[in-house]
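Form 7-S
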Amino acid sequence: MSASEFSQPPSGNSLPEAAFDLAVLSDTGTAREHNEDACGHLLDGSGTAVFAIADGVGGYEGGEVASTMAIEVTLRAWRESPPAWGANKRLVRAVQQANIEIYNRAIAVPELRGMCTTLTAVAVERGMLSAAHVGDCRLYLMRDGKISQLTKDHTVVGERVRMGLMTPEAARNHPKRSSLQRSLGRELIVAVDRITMPLMRDDRLVLCSDGLHSVLRDHEIDSIAVDGDAQSVCRRLIETANERATRDNLTAAVFRMIAETGNNPAAENWRRRLGRLLGRS
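Output:
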């Protein structure tokens, strides 16, 4: 399988008490010669995983450079940031640093003018999920037999769907479905969506580029991801999308929460706040 050279399947089983299982995988797809998607991960201590996906824009060279920089700079900036900041701040600052460096490179190199990229980065630290999101890669949560899209698509049609001007079904085939409203590298300052929530044991996360979610519907992603280890799920997602003859590059990351997360004080505080908002004791 052509995706194997991009496979990065760190196993949660190498961590104490098998806290989680994580894999990331990218593929050129069936219609392109080059892969403008990029992905990466790092394990930061015994209970923290960081993983990210980027989808470059700007032609072969520019798109590939932008997405690769987005991943490399984000992971580097995370490693160099103080742990005392907390996962959410570290992740958002890292994405902002990636935006600045991509923007500066595009200005400095005429051949790369106009390059930009989407980026969604996720950190799971002792059972707490933090995510920083720009563009139209999607982060899904699978819990208790249901799938939920945690991110918003920063696209023209995504905005129309949220405003009630277009149905999700019509958006899937709209000619401007990939027209981005927000991306890394286009401007010096970028707005970054933040997501923070506690995870539960047996939760699954799927992070994917639009080359995958444009051909697989949410319920299909859910059915593929419901069983198996992270690496096998990544492969099945890529293989199934390629069987649909997707014309785009494909990237997926799968995270399984294996350990019990109830001992995380931050998660417990979050649940108590949510309970008060819902009027629960």
